[in-house]
């Protein structure tokens, strides 16, 4: 493995670092207090991302994107992890690349341009692993009728559409579902209820699971890079706080317990960072990703939990609480219950890979 980044990746890293410091971090207090950005602020951040040439940068070139590899994508994700303000990059699920000509005009092209967002509805309430999903797709006179409940992330705008995974007679399949369709209802807490709602088949019936798992593996690696960026931002804030905060006549950085936690955070972040980039390197080489991606997902999530816990203890020392508690912002960006659920799935995925006969050497 080559530990040197390409000149283009280094240039992107430097540009994004300036963007995060100049444009994103000044919005953190407003985002922290209100829970959202004003429309004009979101528009300004998107415009800046477009000017940097990063909107849709990871989408293959033949579909109108930049075609960046996984290592460079991780560099981008890590830098964006340096702010608690959510920043979009115009990404779309790889399953959308299987759109036919009619579907491409209605779904893929608007998603790539950012005019419409796709909400992936794969997991189900109380069921994380695909083997436990029970939503079904039955053939109808026109297309398929979908039944069951699915989880999706984020509030759905009126123009958004859903990419649903459900079990057709041929096996787990992908479907495109429009809002407003009869039998389709959005419930609280990000639940999509399907009671005979019509879905348009995406790709070949029964082929969604392999595509979903390959896409999920790359997504885990990139999300791991984002977690590394968040943890590194927490490390920087803890260092600054320990140097500047004076309690009982001396800075916190003089205290052995604080020094120990700062050292542990530093080693933790740096070691896990290279686990992520090794997995990204394997992805760019076209090698098998399932074990490396699951390990990266598990390691980065647990590392982020440890970092948040240590930073909480550093900021919870003697003296009045600071105006901004970074650990609270981190938990807003990555809800603990969501993270723990994902880590359980990652643990299961790691165990499944290491116990499989193919893992023996």
Descriptive report:
It contains 10 helices and 9 strands. With about 350 residues, the chain is α+β, with helices and mostly antiparallel strands. It has 3 domains: about 5-95, Acyl-CoA dehydrogenase/oxidase, N-terminal domain (Butyryl-Coa Dehydrogenase, subunit A, domain 1, Orthogonal Bundle); about 100-200, Butyryl-CoA Dehydrogenase, subunit A, domain 2 (Beta Barrel); about 210-360, Butyryl-CoA Dehydrogenase, subunit A, domain 3 (Up-down Bundle), CATH 1.20.140.10. Strands 1, 2, 3, 4, 5, 6 and 7 form a 7-stranded mixed beta sheet that branches. A hairpin with a 2-residue loop joins β8 and β9 (about 250). The mean pLDDT is about 90.
Q: What would the keywords be for this entry?
A:
361 residues, alpha+beta, Butyryl-Coa Dehydrogenase, subunit A, domain 1, Butyryl-CoA Dehydrogenase, subunit A, domain 2, Butyryl-CoA Dehydrogenase, subunit A, domain 3, seven-stranded mixed β-sheet, two-stranded antiparallel sheet, 10 helices
What number of domains?
3
The oligomerization state is single chain
Please report the distance between the alpha carbons of the first and last residues: 20 Å
Q: Residue ranges: pLDDT <50 for 5 or more in a row? A: none
**The top level CATH class name of the largest domain:** Mainly Alpha
Per the principal axes of the C-alpha atoms, what is the gross shape? globular
**Number of helical stretches of at least 4 residues:** 10
Name given to the CATH homologous superfamily of the largest domain: Butyryl-CoA Dehydrogenase, subunit A, domain 3
The fraction of residues assigned to DSSP E strands is 5-15%
Percentage of residues assigned to helices: 40-55%
Rg over CA atoms: 22 Å
SSE order, one letter for each helix or strand: HHHHHEEEEEEEHEEHHHH
β-strand number: 9
CATH topology-level fold name of the largest domain: Butyryl-CoA Dehydrogenase, subunit A, domain 3
The secondary-structure class comes to alpha+beta
Please state the second-level CATH architecture of the largest domain: Up-down Bundle
Mean pLDDT: 89
């Amino acid at each position: 493995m080559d530990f040197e980044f390409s000149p283009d990746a280094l240039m992107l890293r430097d540009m994004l670092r300036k963007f995060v410091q100049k444009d994103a971090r000044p919005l953190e207090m407003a985002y922290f207090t209100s829970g959202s950005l004003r429309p004009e602020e979101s528009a300004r951040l998107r415009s800046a991302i477009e000017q940097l040439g990063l909107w849709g940068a990871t989408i293959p070139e033949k579909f109108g994107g930049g075609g960046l590899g996984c290592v460079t994508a991780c560099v981008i994700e890590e830098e964006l992890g340096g702010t608690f303000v959510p920043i979009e990059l115009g990404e779309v699920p790889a399953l959308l690349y299987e759109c036919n000509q009619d579907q491409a005009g209605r779904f893929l092209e608007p998603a790539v341009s950012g005019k419409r967002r796709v909400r992936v509805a794969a997991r189900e309430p109380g069921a994380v692993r695909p083997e436990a999903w029970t939503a079904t797709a039955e053939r109808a006179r026109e297309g398929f009728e979908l039944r069951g409940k699915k989880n999706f992330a984020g509030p759905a705008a009126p123009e958004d559409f859903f990419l649903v995974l459900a079990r057709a007679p041929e096996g787990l399949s992908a479907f495109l579902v429009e809002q407003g369709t009869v039998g389709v209802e959005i419930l609280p807490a990000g639940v999509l209820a399907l009671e005979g709602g019509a879905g348009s088949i995406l790709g070949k019936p029964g082929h969604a699971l392999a595509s979903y798992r390959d896409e999920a593996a790359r997504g885990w690696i990139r999300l791991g890079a984002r977690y590394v960026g968040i943890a590194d931002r927490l490390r920087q804030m803890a260092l600054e706080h320990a140097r500047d905060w004076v309690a009982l006549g001396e800075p916190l950085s003089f205290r052995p317990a604080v020094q120990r936690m700062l050292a542990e955070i530093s080693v933790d972040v740096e070691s896990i960072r290279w686990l992520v980039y090794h997995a990204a390197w394997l992805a760019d080489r076209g090698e098998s990703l399932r074990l490396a991606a699951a390990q990266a997902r598990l390691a980065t999530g647990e590392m982020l939990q440890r970092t948040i816990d240590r930073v909480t203890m550093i900021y919870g020392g003697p003296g009045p609480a600071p105006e901004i508690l970074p650990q609270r912002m981190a938990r807003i960006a990555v809800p603990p219950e969501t993270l723990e659920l994902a880590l359980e799935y990652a643990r299961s995925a790691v165990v499944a890979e290491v116990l499989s006969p193919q893992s023996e050497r």
